[in-house]
Amino acid sequence: MSTDRLAPLRAFGRYHRLLVITLLGFASGLPLALTGQAMQAWLTQAGLSLATIGFLTLVGLPYTFKFLWAPLLDRFDLPLFGRRRGWIALSQALLALALLGLAQLDPAQQLGPFAALALLVAFLSASQDAAYDAYRTDLLPAPERALGASLNTLGYRLAMIVSGGLAFIWVDPTAGGLTWPAVYRGFAALMAGAAVVTLLLSPRLPQAERPQTDARRDLLGFAAVLAAVALGVFLVQRGLEPALKAVLAPATPLGGKWVDLLVLLLGLLLVGPLAAWAARRARYDTLLGGLRDYLAQPGAAAMLGLIVLYKLGDAFSVSLLTPFLLTGMGFSPAEVGVANKIFGLWLSIAGALLGGALMLRLGLWRALWLFAVLQAVSNLGYWGLAVGGSGTWGSLTVPAFDWGLVKLAQPTVLDGGLLAVIAFDNLCGGMGTAAFIAFLMALCQQRYSATQFALLSALSAVGRVWVGPLAGVLAESLGWPVFFIVSIGFALPGLLLLWWLRPPIERLDAPTGPVAADD
User: Fold this and answer.
1) Which comes out higher in pLDDT, residue 352 or 197?
2) CATH homologous superfamily for 13-203+283-516?
3) Using CA atoms, how far apart are residues 58 and 35, in angstroms rounded to an integer?
4) Which residues are listed as membrane-spanning (predicted)?
């Protein structure tokens, strides 16, 4: 009888946990577009060049380096609020302030401060993601993890619809008629509300054992890594960049943009090893322990390569999708917002659900392979759109509406080709994302799950962030049709590596694989 009396309480606890996961997933997804495609639209309307917008995609760098400070979120508690909840709420509150500051700047006149503050927004957003990933892992018992992951994806994608879809409609003169600064102030208020929700509604976690490392050494190790990165950047800016520009810039197109790209690539080759050396010398044990634990697995290095390459072609094709649709194709912000940011993201959610269902029948490797091929093929749709232009496949008229949160003041015509391309691309991308997240989860060892998930998810963001500068230069040099053909070539290395790694990936489906190491 006592068990029956406790059943409603257990059910309430389960629903409470899943509701909080959905809300925190929404808060986690909200800032991504605000340093990505929404920011690109703001910069495009401000008159910045395509190559400049391409280089400003580098403000997303914190998403690729969050594993460097994620161990500190594992190691240190915040007074009163706890380790996981405290870091999440602090990140959200600081995000509200940073977005409010960004709304006060004019990117056309204050590009340097604007880029610096956008970089801070990305840093805080990546920190929120790292803390939330760890909180979700610790909060959900094993039977709730699959449903929790689905609801997290739902919340995350809904946030992207708001910040990357509704925002486009709000700034369109025929719809909301707002300015981008006003939109960013609204999102700052949302993030402030998210911090309050996190503290008031999210369940407290039992006191968990922290990594048994020297706290002082971890802090010094992180400081040493930052110092090494700063030194590398200084050497690149003061030595390498001026030397290369003096020799190569006069002979290159686009006012030296190709030289800027070469400086960026060579700088990475310098800064990366320098930071790794600093971490070892300073004995940044929480980070190094998590990396050693992962790298001890057979084929670990090749798996890291696959994580970087799997969605590279997809990331390349969409890295400048907003400027392509707005300026290359001449679509209105409202048309882009409805077609790409709302219609497309709903199809991405449908693709993720479909991909999860297909994975039950296909298994991990076959799902990864099939969805990777579909992702590459979907880039041909943008090539066809660039070659054929708008109006080739007819159009669809969306009537005027006013739903309070979003409205269209007059009917909006949606290009049929745009809708078809967006539908296929997002459906394929959603399926690929579902398989890819399952792959990342299978690779994580539970003892260092927070650090390792931060590392793997950071590597998965490499393509999305680092291809931006190259994409901008190539788009200006080659034109949009050739650009999208090149994007298919970027998908081929991942396909080849995936084929080579078939045996170890198939073993991840076995009960003895890393995913089963749950104690």
Assistant:
1) 197
2) MFS general substrate transporter like domains (1.20.1250.20)
3) 10
4) 15-34, 46-65, 86-105, 111-132, 153-171, 183-203, 219-238, 258-279, 300-322, 342-360, 418-441, 453-474, 480-501
